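RECORD TYPE: inverse folding
INPUT: structure tokens
STRUCTURE:
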């Protein structure tokens, strides 16, 4: 292989989920923090979704490696199973041989095990990967398991990880009770151009590059253009480029070597392929990646305009803390309160299981397709949605388009009581 040629100690772009190579982008760091919170809070599920190749499995493996010894883990990845087969799979992870047990015995054995672990001062964690394949009956079984409790605490901590189809399944009417138990919900998007560059350099450094620039600076925009920031695709392209350069006896990868790798893979630019990561919706969607402004958010507080934000294709998360895409610093706004998913066809508002809710037209909404002129109410903040597509359709031929400069300033702090309909709000979660 090319290790000796490039003076590396490990293969930097293997597809296997090696925690040593994990690059924590802002999104990956937040998802990992959500998973870590399950150890301290037992009141509800944590849901992590992301496209194939987004780094979910590597993130889970890193999280598991860092757990304390008092945490007992069952990790289930085979999810196209019946309720009985699922319960058996969980018990096998805990060291049982349950294959001759009936369902009642399976449940009783599992409940007894959970209570015994709690009495011994141990925490029990269930991680289900590829959870989008679970049937509604199995998901209902998981909800019932989450109800096992002592007089003080829930006993079982649960993380469900899967592809975006999991979101659509959870939002169905049949799973309302389970959705009410979801405490945190987060979607792993693709890496940004800046994170793509940092990701490549990080993996090379872990593999022993010691700061040597094996990839020329001008290659990173091209890497992003052909991978869309999807970690698995970045690995595939960079590994192919290194192999090609090694075969030619070249010490570094420039545009010539990178283009040769792209031709070998027979790739077209990522924007021309089916892509759900840049604007992850709850069902498969083919999107054209564009930097065009699709809509605008005008933020007001007590009737006074305090900011504006352009919406392009992608996901914008709104919440109280600085790690959100749009910060609304109010004690009546949850840490991660809601999100707006924008595609060329429209925008969808989703409540992220906030404490005080999201209101449109005086009605609390969980998921709402935004229309031009809709006003989103978060406490005493109002966010007006202006659809640029609608404005362009109304504009006469030759009319000048709206300006497209972003106003990055977040809405200012608000510590006053919320107006109706959010007057019954308590402090954000």
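DESIGNED SEQUENCE:
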């Amino acid at each position: 292989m090319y290790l000796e040629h490039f003076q590396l100690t490990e293969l930097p772009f293997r597809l296997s989920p090696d925690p040593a190579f994990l690059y924590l982008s802002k999104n990956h760091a937040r998802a990992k923090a959500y998973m870590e919170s399950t150890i301290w809070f037992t009141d509800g599920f944590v849901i992590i979704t992301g496209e194939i190749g987004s780094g979910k499995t590597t993130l889970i493996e890193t999280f598991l490696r860092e757990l304390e010894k008092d945490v007992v883990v069952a990790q289930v990845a085979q999810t196209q199973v019946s309720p009985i087969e699922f319960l058996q799979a969980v018990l096998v992870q805990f060291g049982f041989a349950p294959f001759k047990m009936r369902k009642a015995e399976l449940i009783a054995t599992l409940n007894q095990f959970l209570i015994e672990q709690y009495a011994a001062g141990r925490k029990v964690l269930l991680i289900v990967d590829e959870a989008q394949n679970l049937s509604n009956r199995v998901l209902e079984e998981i909800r019932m398991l989450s109800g096992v409790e002592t007089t003080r605490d829930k006993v079982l901590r649960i993380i469900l990880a899967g592809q975006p189809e999991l979101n659509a399944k959870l939002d169905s009417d049949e799973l309302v009770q389970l959705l009410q138990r979801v405490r945190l919900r987060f979607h792993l998007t693709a890496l940004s151009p800046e994170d793509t560059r940092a990701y490549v350099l990080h993996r090379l450094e872990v593999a022993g590059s010691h700061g040597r620039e094996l990839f020329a600076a001008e290659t990173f925009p091209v890497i992003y253009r052909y991978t869309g920031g999807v970690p698995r695709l970045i690995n595939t392209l960079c590994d192919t480029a290194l192999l090609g350069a090694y075969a030619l006896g070249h010490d570094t990868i420039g545009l010539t070597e990178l283009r040769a790798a792209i031709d070998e893979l027979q790739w077209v630019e990522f924007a021309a392929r089916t892509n759900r990561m840049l604007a992850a919706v709850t069902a498969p969607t083919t999107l054209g990646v564009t930097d065009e402004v699709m809509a605008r958010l005008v933020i007001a507080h007590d009737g006074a305009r305090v900011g504006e934000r352009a919406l392009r294709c992608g996901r914008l998360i709104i919440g109280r803390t600085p790690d959100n895409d749009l910060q609304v610093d109010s004690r009546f706004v949850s840490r991660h309160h809601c999100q707006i998913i924008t595609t060329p066809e429209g925008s969808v508002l989703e409540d992220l299981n906030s404490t005080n809710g999201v209101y449109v037209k005086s009605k609390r909404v969980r998921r709402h397709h935004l229309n031009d002129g809709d006003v989103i109410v978060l406490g005493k903040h109002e966010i007006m949605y202006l659809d640029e597509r609608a404005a362009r359709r109304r504009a006469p031929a030759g009319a000048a388009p709206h300006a497209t400069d972003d106003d990055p300033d977040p809405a200012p702090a608000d510590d006053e009581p919320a107006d109706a309909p959010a007057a019954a709000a308590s402090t954000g979660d």
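NOTES: Confidence is low (pLDDT under 50) at residues 274-290, 397-429.
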